[in-house]
Amino acid sequence: MAISASGAQVASSSKTTTTSNAQDTSLIVADSIKNQTDTTGAVDSTSLTDTTRNHLKETQGQDTVMMEDDSGLETMVTIVANDSSWNEVSKNMLHLYNGAKVKYQDFELAADYIRLDRNTNQLFASGVTDHNGKYVGRPVVIFPGESPKSVDSLMYDYKSREGNTYGIMTEEDGAYVQARVVRKNLYDELSLQTGMYSTCNLPYPHTHFGIQFTKGLLAKNHIIVGPAFLVVENIPIKFVAIPFGFFPKNNKRSSGLLFPSFGEDATRGFSIRDMGWYLAFNDYWDSEIRGSLYSKGAWEGSVRTNYLVNYKYSGGFNIRYASTPSGVEGTENYGVNRDFNVTWNHTQRQEANPGTSFSASVNFGTSSYFRNTGFNQQNSIEDLTRNNMSSSIAYGKVFADGKVNFTANLSHRQDMASGQVDLELPSFSLNVSTFNPFDSKDRVGDQKWYQRITVGYSLQGRNTISTTDSLLFKKEALNDFTNGFQHNIPISLSLNAFKYFQFNTSINYTERWYLQSVRKRLINEVNGFSAMRDTVRGFERAYDYSMSAGLSTKVYGMYPKMGKVEAIRHVITPSINLNYRPDFSDPTYGFYRDFVNDNGVVERYSIFEGGIFGGPGAGRSMGIGFSVDNNIEAKVRNNNDTTGNEAFRKVKILQGLTFSGNYNFQADSLKLSTISFSGRTSLFKEKINLNFNGTFDPYTYNKETGQRIDRFAIQDGDLARLTNFGLSFDYSLNPNANKSRNDNLDSLRNQMPNMTAEQADALARISTDPNAFVDFNIPWNLNGSFSMNYNKSWNSAERRMMNTVTATVNVNGDFNVTPKWKVQFNTGYDLRQKALSLTRFSIYRDLHCWDMSIGWTPFGQYQSYNITIRAKASILQDLKLTKRESHYRY
Fold it and tell me: Where are the residues of the annotated region Disordered (predicted)?
């Protein structure tokens, strides 16, 4: 509420000018001048002769004088006026116009009109009324140790450093304090008269919410106000008033209460959500403890902590626990679901410890946590629709000038539907860069063929367990861990052959170390014999090796010009290799054993069956492997180009269309493997990325058992059988939306140099949550994705081949109804289930210094709606009015 002082405005036409172009500042401190420099080239002003000629300067100029402060030390006063200055000698006053500036010690003042009264040592500053009748050029003042403030006008005694400010607006911790009159004293305290505290940065809060007070005192560590009352939509609510108020004002984070939200849930009853306490330990880490209570017995609790050490590392973790009753109390189906969820993120700056890296991204808990706690302010749509959770903690170290690389990783993957949990605690790898053992550092000339031989080495270790989340923390689970080590030594040689071909040959040796192996036996039971599989503890060593040699080349083809298509280039990369591997199931190796199964049939099995890195393969293999890769691009004439710089544009028609397979001469039957293919392309100027893959089976199958038989499908009139096929694509019809989102994120970060870890985490969520950020500058946005998978397999129940097709479509986007109204939507459709996935609509209204949002989930398990009105200022984020209705089905 900015109210100008009466008579403070100065009309621009009231200025009096003369024809001289010099400044005279000598009279400003005539009694204490020690030294003065006339920067305008006028006659030495110390003589004080004919000062009426030194009144005006039509161009930008600067003058300085030296004066004594209270301690007797010399202080420089700088005076600048872009338009003109007028020295009123009779009254000992100096008038400055248009972009005038005065700097005295730590005090700075800029305005379109400044009057300096040398008799009283007072400055008066105000704006001027331009030819359109607008008040422009308001004073901007900088007091020592404070940020710039814009005011309507001010009076300031530069000797006593006291004065009155009229129509001031200042920002305090994200909110705005406006006052009719403000007086500053020597103790840097501000006395306020007739003011308003609000979240709006306009000269007058035209709508919404504010607190009006009659008197106040703004000090360094606290704010004291007199009688205060609410003002909503310009309507004073004086019956909701306080006689006085005292508000601590800390310059650092401090602990305090976290205000809750209220609502009602159809299953859990009335609720008080997210009430808690914020703990500010120091500048490096803080924490918040929150809890939620429901009238029907459910409750939730969470502990969230963030930490940050500048230029070293940052991160945070969140531990959440929920207790949710289900069923009807007193009946057999009544029970209590106890769920938890733990997240941890850690990032290390590379420059903090060169050569060493450490990162963590952890998300684990019970699979039913998000389902039982439902959609709320902490659970996003992505949380409710995800099918799995995963975690990773990684450490890396580089040795020997980058030639040796060690990495260790702890990982976790959890299926939300089945509750299956896979853990690796830990896995590690040690890799040595390939080197040329027969090459010499003192070699002169080209390498000989044997000097091109390269050797590498890698070591891997894993310790894993696969179980369910209900059995994970039980003692019996410790016996289910499996572990092992694998060494790999590749030796290769690459040469140019026959001018157009690349010759490659390699020998690969692999050795595995296990601490357990498998034995199979028969046990005699009442109903007969049954097979038993035992795990034998003890060290076992398994090794294998293979050899291969092959040729590859590139074939280029050009197709003739067709219409706007100037040229089409087709690049074919065929390769063929001969590979050999011995039969490691031979008894001499000791890797395989025989036993008679319960049907009396001799069965050969590997003692490393189920091992982490597998075991040596059975059966000798000598065959030919082949692959063909295709890449097709077109050069199209660009009719929209008028400069000639981009007369043609490149269009990617087909990228990486690859077919591959293998033919084994040593196999008794089914010598030809399945033919795999994959490819990708982009459409509509790369707005749509399309990927596909699949498998062809060249053999037919037994119509009675579904097993493959040694008969080519082409003999029955089919080239091959398509056993599986996958297709997926995603698109964005307005790619400027993602660019705008990233630009806005950068802008927000630049405006918050003292951003806390919690604020940084909130900004990070904007990039993933479509409801977390609303950009009214983008009129519309539409994103979508489609995925389809086809699989053909034998159905033993119906004794025939069955086709299984799954397909899903997901769409999200937004559009502006008006410049202040926006609608967002997120939905999807399962074509197989013929049902919509989680669908949500959101409506946003920009209320300048407030936000209003309406969220609606019309159907499904999380059917609900909510209405939120929230202040934009960070200090008043908990000041919101919310109406929420939810329906959870368990």
Answer: 1-22
CB-based contacts of 447: which residues, under 8 Å, 6+ apart?
436, 439
Q: 731: Cβ–Cβ under 8 A, 6 or more apart, which residues? A: 684, 687, 688, 689, 783, 784, 785
pLDDT of residue 79: 75
How far is the C-alpha of 195 from the C-alpha of 225, rounded, in Å?
10
Q: Where do the domains of the chain lie?
A: 78-253, 254-350, 674-886
Q: What is the pLDDT of residue 67?
A: 47
Q: What is the pLDDT of residue 12?
A: 40
Strands (DSSP E) found in 310-453: 313-326, 335-348, 356-365, 388-399, 404-415, 420-435
Round to whole Å and give the CA distance between 684 and 734. 12
**DSSP code string of 146-183:** S--EE-SEEEEETTTTEEEEEEEEEEETTEEEEEEEEE
Whether the Cβ atoms of residue 40 and residue 53 lie closer than 8 Å to each other: no
Helix (H, G, I), strand (E, B) or coil at 483: strand
pLDDT reading at 16 higher than 70: no
In eight-state DSSP terms, residue 764 is H
Please provide residue 428's backbone torsions phi and psi, each rounded to the nearest 5 degrees.
-145, 165
Q: Using CA atoms, how far apart are residues 824 and 816, in angstroms rounded to an integer?
A: 9
CB-based contact 192:170 (threshold 8 Å): no
Strands (DSSP E) contained in 418-500 are 420-435, 454-468, 482-497
CA distances to 175, 217, 247 from 223, in Å: 13, 6, 5
Average pLDDT of the chain? 76
CA-nearest of 177, 189, 185, 191 to 149 is 177
User: How far apart, in whole angstroms, are the C-alpha atoms of residue 806 and residue 725?
Assistant: 11
**Model confidence, pTM:** 0.54
* Statement: 78-253 belongs to CATH 2.60.450.10: yes
Verify cis geometry, omega within 30 degrees of 0, for the bond prior to 426: yes
pLDDT reported for residue 584: 92
Q: Is 28 exposed, middle or buried (0-12, 13-18, 19+ CB in 10 A)?
A: buried
pLDDT at 458 over 70: yes
Question: Which H helix or E strand runs over 736?
Answer: helix 736-750
The size of the chain, in residues, is 890
| DSSP state letters, 670-702 | --BPPEEEEEEEEETTTTEEEEEEEEEE-EEE-
